[in-house]
Amino acid sequence: MARFVVVDTAEELAWIGEIELLLGNGSNLLAPDTGLPGTVVRLGGEFRALDVVEEEGESVVIRAGAGLHNSVLLSRLDKLDLGGLGCLAGVPGTVGGAVAMNAGTALGEIADRLVAIEGWIEGRSLHLSRQELHMSYRHGDIPPGLVVTAAFLRASRDAVAAERERVAQHLQRRKATQPLELPSCGSVFRNPPGDHAGRLVESVGLKGHAIGGARISERHGNFIVNGGGATALDVMRCIRLAWDTVYRETGVRLVPEVRVVGQWPPELWPLPP
Ligand SMILES: Cc1cc2nc3c(=O)[nH]c(=O)nc-3n(C[C@H](O)[C@H](O)[C@H](O)COP(=O)(O)OP(=O)(O)OC[C@H]3O[C@@H](n4cnc5c(N)ncnc54)[C@H](O)[C@@H]3O)c2cc1C
Question: HEC states along 171-215?
Fold first, then answer.
């Protein structure tokens, strides 16, 4: 049965049963227009807490609830005069989503600052160190079915002002190069080694190409924006067109970064291996 539940406490999480999708902020996710048949869960309440758990000299370990938005995390750290997580500036997701996707920017990735996670799977809680997660580029290697409930992150009291400066410059650069004023599902493809997915999509002449209300951004070839009234199917058709054209014309098989969930017409998804 389709249902959407916001879970505020560990007791509620224990009670919820089988979860089809753990939704963060949905900023790197594409679901069909018809929705999902099972239970979609979002973390609220106690899963949005932030605590300092360890302090040693300049180094501070914080425990951040997985439902906390990155922007809230960063502004709360700023008020505590703590830095170290500038790599999440401008990434419009949650702490749980950042761990699951190993989110990052030119300033680094969350794996650089992650100490461990707390999670929930098959009715029990567990604690995994960063090493056990085998994180790689835009990949958190979260075991299937695991709900990340909190992340232990290494913040710092060192060079906070210098980091603020780097973050401000980075946010300005993003504004100039990414279509942040229109809704999108984030980067569609991972950058292949030594190249950029956006450059490849641009090289095959697809920037600005529209299908229904969805359009491959004129500003950045790896973003598909909703110019008004786009359906998820329009976005998926753009993804498939970009993948097929890049493969045909350059031989590169792009790997999706966006997490695609639910049932799709088989001629569109999954992509060929
Ligand atoms: C305009 C724009 C700019 C972006 N820029 C960047 C960028 O610079 N760098 C970058 O890395 N990403 C970027 N993204 C992509 C996206 O913001 C990140 O991938 C982000 O980390 C996703 O977090 P989320 O909370 O929105 O996760 P969602 O999109 O909701 O989910 C993504 C995946 O994570 C899983 N997940 C979420 N929370 C949990 C949890 N608690 N436990 C287990 N699994 C979970 C979901 O099930 C899903 O598989 C951008 C997106 C947009 C729209």
Answer: HHHHHHHCCCCCCECCCCECCCCCCCHHHHHHHCCCCCCEECCEE
Rounded to the nearest angstrom, the distance between the alpha carbon of 56 and the centre of ligand 1 is 31
User: Which atom, in ligand 1's list, is nearest to the CA of 180?
Assistant: 1
User: What is the pLDDT, as a whole number, of residue 273?
Assistant: 84
Quick one: pLDDT at residue 239? 98
**Cα-to-centroid distance, 113 and ligand 1 (Å):** 17
| CATH (domain of 36) | 3.30.43.10
Is 196 found in the same domain as 272? yes
Q: pLDDT digits over 31-74, tens only? A: 999 999 999 999 999 999 999 999 999 999 999 999 999 999 99
Question: For residue 84, is it within any domain?
Answer: yes
Q: Which residues are catalytic?
A: 138, 187, 257
Number of domains in the chain: 3
Residues 259 and 198 in one domain: yes
Give the tens place of pLDDT for each residue, 175-197.
Answer: 999 999 999 999 999 999 999 99
The C-alpha torsion from 206 through 209 and 213 to 217, rounded to 10°, is 60
User: Which residue from 74, 101, 107, 196 has its CB within 8 A of the most atoms of ligand 1, so it is best to mutate?
Assistant: 101
